[in-house]
Every structure is written in structure tokens, then in C-alpha cells.
Amino acid sequence: MSNRYVYGIVESDTVEFETDAVAGAERVYTISHRRLGAVVSDIDTTDPEETDEDAQIHDDVLREIMEYDGGTTIVPMQFGMAFESDRALKNVLRGARPAFRRAMNDIEGKIELGLKLVREEDADVDRETIEADVADRLEPIAAQSVENDLFSDRLVLNRSYLVDEDEREAFDDAIADFEDDHDELMVQYTGPFAPYSFVDVKIGAKQ
């Protein structure tokens, strides 16, 4: 397993622990270049298959990293980034360093939370009214939000929110109050996640 599978980018402080990692690996560790580090595990391919199990493990490892040493900011990578050598990975860290630094500053101390609102089967709802109500309650608390696809006719709203960890309780309370006021909707509130939706750093082709 000489290749490196990448979960995300952190400050160069070493992250290292044993865990169930992608493709059967049992340890994650950091490969550093200057003040940045890629958190990786060993893997025997540069083109890993995205099984449901490994996709879940990828997310679970990111959560562990976020909780590591009292809290660690990580710029998350999507599933499947793997490199054949430490040198290739360090070249990426070198080339994308300004973008990683900006992304890290944007998400430091923040988490991603997801909200889906599903219309009850026989309910008649006005989407614009619901969207306005949600915005009034949540946008003042969240640092940012993005709209996601409405992949079902009954899905009224699907958004991701970037929330400061210090505002998590207030955000939870606002969701609970909204749910109490809307019996016509099923509220699906998920997270915390690594802030995928608020990071747009391309690290190039696998090498």
C-alpha cells in the first residue's frame, strides 16, 4: 500500500491515530509541506472504488479529524483523491497553498449542517412562504448557506448551512422551533459534517 489516500488538508500540526480507514487501512497520519498537511491513509490504488461502506468511512474519518486534539479545522476532500507518492502530494500542497489557506480561514471553527423539509403526503404548502420563514429564522445565525437540489416532488427545501460551533445550540433551537410550528412538514436535520459545501479547492489530477 504505497499510495496515499487523502481525506483533507489541515495546519501542519501532526494528526495521527488508529481507526477504520478507507480500503481497509487502520491508521491515518499527516504528510506535511511547510505549514500545511494532508491527512492520509495508505491504499493500494490511485483509483479507489466508491463503495457505500468506504464513502461512509471517509465521512467518519473526517469527523474524527474534526474532533482530534480538542478540535481541528480540516479542508475536506471529496471521496477518491489518491496519489502514488509523497512527492506528488507535496507538489499539490505547494501549488494550491493560497487556496487552501483561504478555505481554512473561511471554515475555521465552523461546521456544516443540513436541512431538508419534506411535505407530508396530503399537505398543501407554499414553497416561497416556507423558504422565507426558514431564512428569517436561520440566516441570522448561519455564517453562510447554499441551496441543494430538490430531487423529489415532496422536497420543499434542501439547504446546507455553515455554522460557527459557538452558534450550534442557537441553530438547533431555531430548527426545533420551526418544526414545532410546521406540522405539515417532515424536518430532516443532519450533521455535523466537514464543510464540503463551502470549500471549492481543486487539487488537480491524481498522480
From TrEMBL:
Domain of life: Archaea
Annotated keywords: Gas vesicle
InterPro entries: GvpL/GvpF
Subcellular localization: Gas vesicle
GO biological process: gas vesicle organization
GO cellular component: gas vesicle
Electron transport in keyword set: no
Record's keyword annotation contains Metal-binding: no
Family membership noted in the UniProt record: Belongs to the gas vesicle GvpF/GvpL family.
Name of protein: GvpL/GvpF family gas vesicle protein
Organism: Natrinema zhouii
